[in-house]
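Moderator note: this is an archived Q&A kept for reference. The question asked for a predicted structure of one protein chain; the sequence and the answer are reproduced below.
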Amino acid sequence: MELTELLAFAVKNGASDIHLTAGLPPMIRIDGDIKRVKVDALDEAFVREMVTDVMTEEQKAEFEEHLECDFAFEIPNLSRFRVNAYNQKRGVGAAFRTVPTKILTLEDLGAPQVLRTMADNVRGLVVVTGPTGSGKSTTMAGMINYVNETQHGHILTIEDPVEFVHESKNCLINHREVGLHTHGFAKALKSALREDPDIILVG
């Protein structure tokens, strides 16, 4: 089973995460539960090939040097994926998190009015916290989308990696990915002060 075929199968079945681990069959998380895909176990060379095939040359170099790497990529007409590639006892492993290409609005999310009120503030700090898979990124994307539709300003995102890709509507939106567009969060934040931002998202 090729990677694109596996990811398409996972998305079709409503999986939030896809796990590739050398020596085991692929596994997907559906409604909070990990389930095995009914295919043969993946050998280490095949997992390594699948994972590195969707990396840039810079990401491959980072993976070789640091033994792990965070990045994102998109399969058109399917989904965007946030990926963590790593090494483990049996060899290479990777976790793929599905990131919908359609950004849900705060209305779609059934978000409380307080999120709109916070997004309307021209000053302040908003911290979105919660356990893995609780909707932090989706909530932040909904808030950025709300600002993008209701205000006129410059939104700068600094992420590792970039998850949701926003089109500039009423706002100018610039996405910066650590390791690809900047050397680090601290460097990007210092630079941001000279980039005339109204909102900075750090994720």
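Archived answer notes: The chain has a mean pLDDT of 93.
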